[in-house]
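sanity check this chain:
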Amino acid sequence: MLKSYHWKLYFQAQFDFGSKKQPMSLLVDTGSSWTWVATDKCKSTPTEKCDDTHLYHHRDSVTYKEAGKKYDIKYGSGIIKGLKATDSVYLPGMPRGKKTGVKDFPFLAVDSVPSAAKKIMSGIIGLSPKDDSAGPLFVDYLFKQGAIP
């Protein structure tokens, strides 16, 4: 879906995260290979408030696992901070009978997000060429687990 925010256009796609398939709106980013999602670990400050409607409730998923390594990623709008984690990620709206997602997909479970990002999305799905520090791309996972030919 093409959206607009403060005169800027961007693509956003919905993915379902975790065993309960929580819907998350992710910005499609072709300039980064990182995938990250703002979690309910988000820390509010006097100037930065966490909006619960955009947060991934990781405790609700029985398939969520933390890898333990912390990352700080710098973007033009600020820095995100989070922990590497894995969970099941699904593509909603796939034809019945088709495999709709992947298991153990690595992403950053983020607890610190710039305020501009909090207003428009739950996270980012990185689609740029692979960066070894970010882990495999979502499309690679779809292929390896047989969801796409």
Summary: The CA atoms of residues 55 and 67 lie 19 Å apart. Helices lie at 115-120, 138-144. The chain is about 10% helix and 45% strand.
